[in-house]
Backbone:
């Protein structure tokens, strides 16, 4: 009988939970299926009501909580983006402990004013910009899941304080099913009493949806001309908004990215790169976003140090896009879960389907980079991997081979149905990935195309046969070239290529040796390719030796064991200096 009672109780709770979770019309709206081409009609205010959670707490309780928050603030702390420090040993210990949960120093954040100032990090020329007096309006969409109160509210205040009211139509907060009490009743109370009611909307999602579907829900609830997405832990720099809106007015299909500055997760320092040295977005064949230098040709093409600077990809969290164009160009892949991959998906899609991605150097936003994800991944799924497999299957054509060389495991994982995305690409007559590489990212190294030879690099004299091997140093930028028994199939650790111009290299790193011509024996190191050849130039000669041009020496593995470093020694007739590439494209 007690079992039955227990089951009944459990059932009752589930029903109660379901009924509280489906009480608002907003929640129905988010379920709408794929609709890429047409923007939903701009919602009226009444379509997106705030949902007031039933809670035992009263307005007095919320007032007390807010008063408590305010009492913790140390005036002036962190102003102008200065680094801050905790001194009290107890607080330090608490901060340390909470770091493991929040992925940033929440104790410190709680002491810094929600309206602290940050430095004007912009290029001096930005001060002389002129903007149209008829700019489009903006909806700023901020998605969050269990974000800490102070970082979320600092983001909101920062946007409100640094955006001309007539251009900022609204901030749309999208709560991706947070379960922190303070993000429910207290948040609604704060919006009602402390923030302009006509400016800040709150959309609650009825289930954990992940950042991609959360952004879609925000976009559906937004009504201004332009959508601007931000992460929930950002601070904007003076006049961040106008350059974005101005550019969209000039070029409707440009998707715009601010310069993203770093707010330290430890001391909250706002640090900014020099305006001349900002970077744009690239990608790795393993399917990750990465930063790259602005190519010299682009510096010329853009015409000015503060001109719109083309970027092959974007980091994903912070960007502006014409609201109707967002839908026309395919919004997002709604079947992507939680985190990861949507940034490259949108980047490839926008370029290949006729738009462009540009960094606007006079628009700057700081972002707290967190060392890990302070939220769950339901089902323990590798959502970055799966989402990225969806991206490569839809957008990368044959080049997906390079991705699977890194992620062989994903070839057998269920990544869901991608037919709708493929259909969209077809219907929009989007260009090929090769077009993207040739035209948008010509400097991207293609390890099996831009080469004389590639694959496993084998020495047949050794037993077992040894091949060059990265020995899992992939994320390092300075390590020695090693060897390991040749694998049965080509995997990324053993992928080396000899580029057409004579580098012995991987995706980003080149094999380098000292240029000394003495008889000394040296090591070969992998360091970022510098493109200048010199100490990174190699020749694979008729005998099969890999000869370093600057020193005249050869790669040699005599007496080198598995996982040890190869030598660069005077060339000889040793068979331990002879290497075969698995694939030779230019004999
Ligand atoms: O399930 C989730 N639901 C959410 O609403 C998971 C996350 N989120 C929210 C979260 O609260 C945050 O506001 O989504 C936002 C992004 O999550 P983060 O801050 O954990 O992501 P990130 O900053 O580590 O990751 C970057 O790459 C992601 C790839 O999916 C997203 O595109 C992030 O927006 C993106 N952040 C940036 O581009 C900021 C600049 C960083 C860089 C480089
Ligand atoms: Mn983030």
Residues:
């Amino acid at each position: 009988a007690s079992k039955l009672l227990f089951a009944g109780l459990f059932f009752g709770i589930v029903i109660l939970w379901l009924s509280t979770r489906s009480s608002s019309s907003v929640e129905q709206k988010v379920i709408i299926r794929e609709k890429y081409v047409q923007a939903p009609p701009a919602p009226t205010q009444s379509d997106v009501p705030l949902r007031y959670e039933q809670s035992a707490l009263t307005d007095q309780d919320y007032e007390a909580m807010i008063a408590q928050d305010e009492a913790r603030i140390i005036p002036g702390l962190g102003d102008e983006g200065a680094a801050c420090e905790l001194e009290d040993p107890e607080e330090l210990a608490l901060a340390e402990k909470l770091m493991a949960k929040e992925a940033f120093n929440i104790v410190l954040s709680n002491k810094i004013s929600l309206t602290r100032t940050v430095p004007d990090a912009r290029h001096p020329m930005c001060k002389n910009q002129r903007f149209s007096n008829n700019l489009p309006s903006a909806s700023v969409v901020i998605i969050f899941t269990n974000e800490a109160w102070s970082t979320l509210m600092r983001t909101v205040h920062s946007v409100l304080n640094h955006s001309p009211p007539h251009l900022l139509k609204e901030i749309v907060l999208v709560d991706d099913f947070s379960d922190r009490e303070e993000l429910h009743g207290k948040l609604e109370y704060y919006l009602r009493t402390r923030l302009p009611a006509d400016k800040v909307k709150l959309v609650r999602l009825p289930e954990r949806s992940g950042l991609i579907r959360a952004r879609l829900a925000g976009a559906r609830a937004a009504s201004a001309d332009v959508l601007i997405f931000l992460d929930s832990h950002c601070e904007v720099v003076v006049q961040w908004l106008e350059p974005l809106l101005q550019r969209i007015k000039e070029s409707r299909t440009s998707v715009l990215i601010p310069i993203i500055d770093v707010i330290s997760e430890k001391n909250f320092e706002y640090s900014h790169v020099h305006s001349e040295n900002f970077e744009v977005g690239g990608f790795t064949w393993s399917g990750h976003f990465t930063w790259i230098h602005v190519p010299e040709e682009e510096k010329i093409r853009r015409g000015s140090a503060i001109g719109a600077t083309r970027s092959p990809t974007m980091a994903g969290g912070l960007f502006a896009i014409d609201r109707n164009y967002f839908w026309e160009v395919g919004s997002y892949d709604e079947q992507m879960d939680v985190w990861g991959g949507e940034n490259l998906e949108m980047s490839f899609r926008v370029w290949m389907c006729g738009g462009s991605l540009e960094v606007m150097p006079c628009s700057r936003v700081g972002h707290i980079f967190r060392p890990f994800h302070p939220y769950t991944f339901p089902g323990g799924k590798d959502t970055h991997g799966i989402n990225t497999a969806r991206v490569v299957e839809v957008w990368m054509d044959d080049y997906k081979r390079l991705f699977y060389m890194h992620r062989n495991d994903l070839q057998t994982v269920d990544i869901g149905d991608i037919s709708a995305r493929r259909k969209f690409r077809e219907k929009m007559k989007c260009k090929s990935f090769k077009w993207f590489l040739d035209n948008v990212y010509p400097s991207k190294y293609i390890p099996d195309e831009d080469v004389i030879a590639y694959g496993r690099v084998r020495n047949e004299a050794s037993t077992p046969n040894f091949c060059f091997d990265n020995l899992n140093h992939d994320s390092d930028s300075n390590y020695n070239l090693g060897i390991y028994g040749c694998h049965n199939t080509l995997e990324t650790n053993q992928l080396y290529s000899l580029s057409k111009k004579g580098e012995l290299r991987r995706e980003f790193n080149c094999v380098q040796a000292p240029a000394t011509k003495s008889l000394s024996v040296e090591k070969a190191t992998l360091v970022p390719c510098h493109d200048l050849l010199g100490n990174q130039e190699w020749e694979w000669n008729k005998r099969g030796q890999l000869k370093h041009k600057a020193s005249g020496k050869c790669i040699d593995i005599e007496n080198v064991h598995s996982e040890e470093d190869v030598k660069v020694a005077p060339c000889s007739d040793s068979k331990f200096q002879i290497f075969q590439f698995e694939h030779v494209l230019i004999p």
